Amino acid sequence: MADEGFYAASPITSGSDAIIDWTFTDCNERGAAYFGLQKHELIGKNFSSFYSTASLERILETCARAVKDGCYEDEYQESPGSPLKIQWVRRQLVASGDGLAISLRDISGIKEYTIEMSRLANEDLITTLPNRKWLAEFLPDVLANAKSKVALLFIDLDDFKNVNDSLGHSIGDLLLRAAAMRLRSVLGSHDTVVRLGGDEFAIVLTELKTNGEAKRVAELVNEILRFPLELVKGKKSITASIGVSFFPDDAEDMDTLLKSAEIAMYSAKKTGKAHYRFYNPTLYKSLKDRLVLEQELSEAIERDQFILHYEPRMRIESGKLCGMEALVRWNHPERGLVPPLEFIPLAESTGLILELGELIIEKAFKQILLWEKSNLPVLPVSINISAHQFNMGNLSQAFFNAFDKYKISPHLIEIELTESVMLGEQTSILKELSAIRSLGIKLLLDDFGTGYSSLSQLQRLKMDTLKVDRAFLHDLEKSREGEIFVKAIISMAHALGMSVIAEGVESGAQLEILHSLSCDEIQGHYLSKPMPGEEMSELLARSDAPMVIYPYALPQPA
Ligand code: C2E
Ligand code: MG
Ligand code: MG
User: Fold this and answer.
1) Which pLDDT score is estimated for 557?
2) Helices marked H in 50-107 — which ranges?
3) Which atom of ligand 1 lies at the shortest distance from residue 353's CA?
4) Residue 207 to residue 220: CA distance in whole angstroms
5) What distance in angstroms lies between residue 327's CA and the mean position of ligand 1's atoms?
6) H helices of 393-547, where?
7) Cβ neighbours, 10 Å, residue 245
């Protein structure tokens, strides 16, 4: 059978010569088959026997145009009640004598293919949600026709990268699909959810009466995501940081609406995750300030605007200098010396800590070499390593390279780690710690007491020394309990073979108590504030004399 249906049709006119119907005068088999008939069954039939009045009217109009112009061509989708057994039709009507030569072609296959292609282009493959491309076409229309408020929720899953890295991409995909399903389930009939990419989703809420409705959906999103998911390797619960912006209050176009919601999301991320924030202009300012600081920090690393200060440490027993802590400062061209707490967290979250950390190691080694060249009796220098730096970088390699370059004795280097370092994957942490220790570097646990690790966990990590956080010193003089607590820490640490340093000692009274509790070393403003390397040279030169002369009797060894 031919793959096109052909028909010849003649007009039927009324008394006033107006065409009121057409009749099939000929057709081929395909043409008849489109109507579900044989050739002889179709020939002689009028159009009106197949079509309702309304449909017939439209067809008569089309035929009239073909007669008038000589030719008419189009593509259309048949309506459900059509007598034609095809969905998508390309038709051509050519005037021929009094009548029309009509050809119809079934183009359903091609149409379905192009529809499918456009669906794929507009759909996210992993979650089958509409994608960002679709949103870009859909949202402007929604805004243009909005009769009430529209809210955009920018949803970013928290710590998704960790899941992907630790559990693998297939589990990551599973999680995204589950999240997508849950997000769909919180939507009303006027709402839409799309996957923007990665672990980012957006929900568009239309026909809002109050901002409170968006607040409710945002809360619901976290409630429903939190519900633990069964995975092959156990259960996993997810949360999201959500930013909400409103049309027309926060933005009048799609791009600004998206940007504002993203800024609000960013702020939710920075303030503890797992919650939502509404956009407001001050968020934009703080984000901008942060971006400026980030830019400056990255330039500062390039231009080497950092210096180290050194805070002396003293052995309680002898009263003599026994080491020091290297503390970084940013020598900002306009702001002067910027303390580390104002830029280390940013350096960590941006990853700049890796470069900065190497710069700090390099500086400490250089300083030690300088002291050695000046024939000063150098004492151990402890270098702070933040958790991100430990987890991201190959620290043992960095220290190995530094020893190789500066040829200084390993006993002069110590590193300070905080308890948060232990949160990651245990075997790789233990491996890295043992690699560092095998270089001859001592391990100090900084800020002990502020985290959650137990002493037995610390022993497993083979820490050499425990630094008791400044916060405990505060309680030391204030209450009997404060003293009991520090006493317990010291005796347990000693029992596990670790020595103890008390940080932030500010008074002789604190020193006296620590002395009586057999604490090994102290540092803090009572001895000295952190100082530049040149000043430390002077202290090193006098290091065989005690820094403190005790006005009270030393406890006698038992
Ligand atoms: P941290 O390692 O616990 O350092 C002790 C901080 O307490 C230092 O502040 C020090 O100046 C301050 N301090 C010492 N004695 C006293 C005292 O008696 N009273 C009071 N009120 N404060 C005292 P700083 O230098 O501002 O450092 C703050 C934190 O920044 C450090 O805490 C450390 O976590 C981080 N940090 C400093 N330098 C570096 C570095 O080179 N790399 C990394 N990753 N972090 C660093
Ligand atoms: Mg420290
Ligand atoms: Mg500390």
Assistant:
1) 47
2) 53-69
3) 44
4) 18
5) 6
6) 395-406, 426-438, 455-460, 470-478, 480-495, 508-516, 533-541
7) 26
- How many Å lie between the centroid of ligand 3 and the Cα of residue 529? 14
CA distances from 77 to 87, 283, 516 (A): 6, 50, 93
Per-residue pLDDT at 437? 95
Residues 6 or more apart from 492 whose CB is under 8 A from it? 455
Give, using CA atoms, the residue closest to atom 6 of ligand 1.
504
Per the prediction, the chain carries an average pLDDT of 92
> Beta strand 381-384 with 321-332: parallel, antiparallel or unpaired?
parallel
The one-letter code for the residue type at 333 is: P
- Band (pLDDT 50/70/90 cuts) for residue 459 is confident
Q: Is the sign of the CA dihedral 134, 136, 140, 143 positive or negative?
A: positive
Phi-psi region of 352 (alpha: psi -120 to 50; beta: other; left: phi over 0): alpha
Is-contact 181 173, C-beta < 8 A?
no
Full-model pTM? 0.65
> What does the block give as tokens for 115?
């529809």
- Identify the burial level of 243 via C-beta atoms within 10 angstroms of its C-beta, where 0-12 means exposed, 13-18 middle and 19 or more buried: buried
Q: What pLDDT does 558 receive?
A: 47
Q: Per DSSP, what are the bridge partners of residue 89?
A: 76, 106
**Nearest atom, ligand 1, residue 341 CA:** 30
Q: Is 341 close to ligand 1, i.e. is its CB under 6 Å away?
A: yes
**Torsion sign, CA atoms 175, 177, 180, 184:** negative
Residue tagged 């589990």 (tokens): 171
What residue type is assigned to position 34 of the chain? Y
What's the average model confidence in pLDDT over 118-129? 90
Residues in the chain: 558
Say how many Å lie between the CA of residue 383 and the centre of ligand 2.
7
Task: Return the H-helix or E-strand segment holding 369.
Answer: helix 353-373
pLDDT, average across residues 22-29: 96
Ligand 2 ion: residues within 5 Å (CB) = 384, 416, 446
pLDDT at 210 over 60: yes
User: Residue 209 and residue 346: Cα distance in Å, rounded?
Assistant: 39
Cis ω before 83 (30° cut-off from 0) = no
Per residue, the 3-state secondary structure of 427-472, as one string, reads: HHHHHHHHHHHHCCCEEEEEEECCCCCCHHHHHHCCCCEEEECHHH
Tokens encoding 489: 């820490």
Element (H, E) at 163: helix 160-167
User: Which residue, by CA, sits nearest to atom 27 of ligand 1?
Assistant: 340
User: Do 102 and 122 touch, CB atoms closer than 8 A?
Assistant: no
